Structure formats: structure tokens, C-alpha cells
Amino acid sequence: MASSHLSLILLLSFCYLYFVFPAATTESALKTSEEDEAGHHYHTLKLTSLLPSSVCNSSPAGNKRAKGSLEVVHKHGPCSTLSEDTAKLLTVEEILTHDQSRVNSIRARLAINNGNKDILGSKATIPAKSGTTIGSGNYFVTVGLGTPPKKLSLIFDTGSDLTWTQCQPCARSCYDQLDPIFTPSGSTTYTNISCGATTCSDLIPATGNTPGCSVSTCVYGIQYGDSSYSVGFLGKEKLTLTPKDVVNDFYFGCGQNNQGLFGQSAGLLGLGREKLSIISQTANKYRKVFSYCLPSRSSSTGYLSFGSSLARNIKYTPLSTSSRGGSFYGLTLTAITVGGAKLPISPTLFKTSGIIIDSGTVITRLPPTAYSALSKAFRAQMSKYPLTKPLSILDTCYDLSKYQTVAIPKISVVWGGNTIVNIAPQGILYANGLSQVCLAFAANGDDSDIGIFGNVQQKTLAVVYDVAGGKVGFGPGGCA
User: Fold this and answer.
1) Candidates 179, 358, 449, 466; catalytic one
2) Does the annotation mark 157 as catalytic?
3) What are phi and psi of 107, to 5 degrees?
4) Span 167-185, pLDDT tens digits
5) Which candidate among 10, 84, 101, 290 keeps its CA 20 to 30 Å from the CA of 118?
6) CA angle 44–71–95, rounded 5-degree value
7) SS3 456
8) Which of 157, 161, 226, 449 is catalytic?
9) DSSP characters for 309-352?
10) Is-contact 369 448, C-beta < 8 A?
11) Active site residue 447
12) pLDDT (tens digit, 9 = 90+) per residue, 432-447?
């Protein structure tokens, strides 16, 4: 987002850059029952499945896919390589607070794109590793960059376009990351991009900021909803997804001034729709098709895959032409069902707000009118369980500490084309311990605010983006 704050960061960064930068569950652990004596409209859920596990249950899904399959892992789970001091881990309240910052950022970007300045109100599969770094995404993958390739763990984000990583010599500042910081001078294939290159101009839609120029080298600046940011040079390099899946001449940001809540990841992988996203840059190779499955628990794994999907039983819905932003993937939501009953919501409500699917937003956001109907129906069917205090943005919460299992109403969303997607039980509830288990949906501030289909509701689904075909598909049991 353009702002005086980021402009100052850019200006200061140019000064530093000029002088110092060189030219060069397993899901079976959930114990759910798809049938219920009340009419097949409930999940019977073992409550321990909502709690963190200390044992890594790596999914075989990636190994069974085409060559080049990699794994997606939860950042703070036992499968993660991004070890971090537990004292520094975000609390559930902090996660949800940062999630709201991301939502505010998305709304602001869409407002700017629409001319509204009043914004206050072949295949390759990469392991996606989920975490709690907010503002720029929640799941990360490990790729190779340069020649010889250096391993980097990058957050992947369908709401961002520019891929960037921290680069030596870190002219201004770099945050702590697990992997060694990328050194362009140590690669035989790195090239800086000139200020006059067409690709430099592509930074405007990709970042929302006008690029700068330092010693004839193009300089980018990007800021996220939680005030995290990255500023550096636009470069070209060899990107290695797997040993047999290599992308030559890949444009990315080589960050020299980076701060924010990126955890110990090395940067970001942009899966948006603009020219500088990895989806657009690899269009000839992967035909603008990618898919992922987000792990059901922090102790499970998923995948991120480029190229045609091998997932089965995929149901597609058209991409919306009114997503109000070039980077985002807009869908058409037509209805929601709870316990088999369709909520009394007018379809025009969703047409007014619109909705996007986003890998980086945690909790699904709905128009207040729709959320009110959802919460009312859910509470009615959960009346035998004791309510408890709200959890940040989540206001329908239960104290389930005295129960071992719980029967929860099934929730389904109906997308355009009558594409019905059943939300997995771990996408219905969000737990802060068993004494505070909440409905994992939240209301927007106004019915006109953009809706967001978040990553909690996407868990265990195979989500297939056929960008060239103008559609997004969903399939059950994607990580199994």
C-alpha cells in the first residue's frame, strides 16, 4: 500500500542501497463420523483432535503425486523445521488480532484499486508449511534459489504477487530467519533488473507502490496489513521447485530492508494473478494451474503443487469477474447450510459484498447479516453445550472441557454453478483449549465489505486453481 510511512522507508533504503549493494492427520486421527442418528447432518468429533499434538503425522499425499511433490507443514507443529522459542509463539488472541489486520489490509487494497481513498473505515509440488505469521500469509514452502540453489522457506500467499526473500548484505536491516540469508554474489545466475525495464513497471500492480531507482537498478517496496514490509532490488534468478522442476529467469525481490511478522521464514512466494506472480511467470510451464491442501492439524502435512492436479472428485466453480482487485481470486457465494438446512439469506447479499478465497486469512469473514443467520442456526443446534465468553473476533464459543466428544452440525457453502463444498469439522471449530471452542467464522463490519473464505475453512480440501480456465475447484480429503 502506498503511504507516507512506506515512502520514507523507500527513500531511506535507496540511500543505503546506493552505497552497499553489489551490481550483481493425518485426517484419520480426527475420528469423525459422517453419519448421525439425527439425519446425517452432524459430525461426531473427538475433542482431542482439536488440540495440538507432539507427534508428526506426515501425509503420504505428496509422495503419491507426480514427480516433484513437496510437503506443506504447520509452522509451529512437530513436522516443522522452523523451530522457534516457544516463548515467542503468538497466542490465539494475537493470531486473531493479526488476522484482522490482514483483513483490513485487503479491504484497503481493494478500496485503492477501486479509486476509493477513504480506506480507514509439467508439475511441481511443494510442501506447504503452516504457521501463525500474519499479514503476509500463514503457510510456507521450501524452494531453492540461485546457482547452486540455496534452500529458502517462503510463506506462500494467494493474496500477494511479488515473490521476495531477504538478501545480503542487508543494507538497512533483516529480521532473523532460519535459512542462511541469500547472497546474490554467491550465485552465477543472478542479475539485477534495470529501472527502464518493462518488468520494473510491473511492480506497480504487484505491490501497489511505484518502484524506485538506485544506480540504474529497479527498487521495489511492499507493505503488509500488520505494517510488515520489504524493500530491495528487483532481480532475476533461477528458481528450483524440485530438482526436476526449475524455473529460469524468475523475477523476484531481493530484500535489503525487511521488518515484520514473517517468523523465521526467508520471505514470501506470491500466488496472485498479476504479471510478477509465480503463477503468471510460469504460465508456459504450468498453464496457470496450481493446487494445495492445507493440513488439518499442526501435526499433519499438506502440499502445494504447480501444474495439473491429480486430486479426484473435484467440483469447480467459476472465478468471479467482480473480485474488485486484480491479485485476488474472487468467487460467487450463493448459500450456506447448517445441519442440512439452508440459511434464510438472500443471494443478493453476497452479490453486494463479493467474496475472495485467500490462503493467508485465517477465519472466514461474512456479511454481518449472513453471519448472524449462521451463528443463530449453529447456536440452536448446539444448545445442549454451555456457551462461554467470546474469543477475540469469534463470538459463538463453548466450554467443552467436560466432554470427550461433541456432535456439531455440518456446515456447507454453495458456490456459483451449484458447487456444494462441505466444510471439514476442523474447519468449523477453532479452539483455545477445550474451555473455549468457537465457531470459526466472523462478521465483517458492514454488509458491503468484501467477504473472505479463509484457510481454516479450507483445511483438508484439495483446492485447485485453474486460472487460465477461469475456475477454482474443491475436493474432499485432499491431504489423505
Assistant:
1) 358
2) yes
3) -60, -40
4) 999 999 999 998 999 999 9
5) 10
6) 60
7) helix
8) 157
9) ---SS-EEEEPPS--SSSSSEEE-EEEEEETTEE----HHHHHH
10) no
11) no
12) 999 999 999 999 999 9
